[in-house]
Amino acid sequence: MKKKTRVNIYDVAAEAGVSISTVSRALNDDPRISAKTKAKVQAAAKMLGFQKNAIATSLSTNQSKVIGVLVSELNRGFLSALVHNIEETAFGMGYSVIVCQTNNSHEREKTYMDTLIASRVAGIIATLSLETESFEHFYKAKEQGIKLVLVDRVTNAMKETTKIVIDDYQASLEGTQHLIEQGYTKIAYLSGPTKQLIYADRLRGFEQAIKQAGLPLKQEWIKYSSNLSFADGTRVADELLSLKDRPNAIFTANNLTAISTIAHAEVLGIKVPEQLGVIGFSEEPFSAFMKPSVTSIRQPSKAMGQLAVQKLIEEINSDQDENYIHQKVVLDTELICRQSTNRKKPG
């Protein structure tokens, strides 16, 4: 059986009895084409099942209605919710979305950036991979007229770039203060790689709250993880809870490691929250349903996704405005107090 070939613009032109340039103009709603001709072309395209090629359209019109999204991991609660809200907002504003997962690899991030540039996207929304320390690939996109908005994991090194963030320092400080208010006096911290601004700020907030309370800030109670995975959370929890002078609370820089910390404490026979308080950063969908449920700092994924798209499209539409002002938008977080820190009496 002969393989069916893809319907193209020549097929539509033949069916409608017009030139290919007329088909192109009619499908792009060119005012030079009459309503009658547009209707005839659209009917032919529909009957043949013709699909416009977004890349080809951008090549011919120099206008793309596609946004690229670079995200580190799609299987994390906050990031999947962020992407969901980016897509919903973009679609509502007439844009399609291409999502690329970097898996926290700098090389993969660069490869996907080249793919998005070659696809002639109008703009890119990105959250940096954990490995990213140089930004030439982002500058390359900007030099080619592709607009850029950074979300969540950002860098101060990139000037003239809109950023949508939270106050990681303040959120971490308040989370630590919550542990102190619950009576925990020996508090450990699990940080992500501090070459990333968000993890440096979260660690600073933790340290400041400990100092303000006059509590011990032991270096052996501060641990680091390169990927903040479930396995790394278990490893660090084992190290901390095996110490002779072990902490009675652990603050982790993401929610997945908080979950693995609680699970490992249970294996060791350590009761949460009575003997160990645990708080995490960001939300996983199952945090509220664990036993005990996990106290965490909720990031506004909906507002961050919506604003990222709105600011990106605003910049796309002001392409000729040399005085466009790039913003750093800081959104509020919410401390969700659950069972893992709900200790009635100091201990």
Keywords:
six-stranded mixed β-sheet; Rossmann fold; 434 Repressor (Amino-terminal Domain); 12 helices; 3 domains; 16% strand; 12 strands; alpha/beta; six-stranded parallel β-sheet; 347 residues; 43% helix
What is the fold named in CATH at topology level of the largest domain? Rossmann fold
**Portion in beta strands:** 15-25%
Strand order of the largest sheet: 2-1-3-4-5-11
Number of helices: 12
Structural class comes to alpha/beta
Cα Rg: 25 Å
CATH uppermost class of the largest domain: Alpha Beta
User: What percent of the residues sit in helical stretches (DSSP H or I)?
Assistant: 40-55%
Number of structurally distinct domains: 3
Uncertain spans: none
Shape label: elongated
Largest sheet: 6 strands, parallel
Description:
The chain has 347 residues and is α/β, with parallel strands linked by helices. It has three domains: 9-52, 434 Repressor (Amino-terminal Domain) (Orthogonal Bundle), CATH 1.10.260.40; 66-166 and 300-332, Response regulator (Rossmann fold); 168-299 and 335-341, Rossmann fold. Helices cover 43% and strands 16% of the residues. The chain contains twelve helices and twelve strands. It has helices at 9-16, 20-27, 35-48, 54-61, 77-92, 106-118, 136-143, 168-181, 197-213, 230-241, 255-267, 301-317, and strands at 66-71, 96-101, 123-126, 147-151, 162-166, 187-191, 222-224, 249-252, 277-281, 295-298, 328-331, 334-336. A six-stranded parallel beta sheet has the order 2-1-3-4-5-11, with helices on both faces. It has a six-stranded mixed beta sheet with strand order 7-6-8-9-10-12, sandwiched between helices. Helix 11 (255-267) links the parallel strand 8 and strand 9 (277-281). Helix 1 packs across helix 3 and helix 5 (77-92) packs across helix 12 (301-317). The longest helix is centred in the middle third of the chain and has 17 residues, at 197-213. The mean pLDDT is 90.
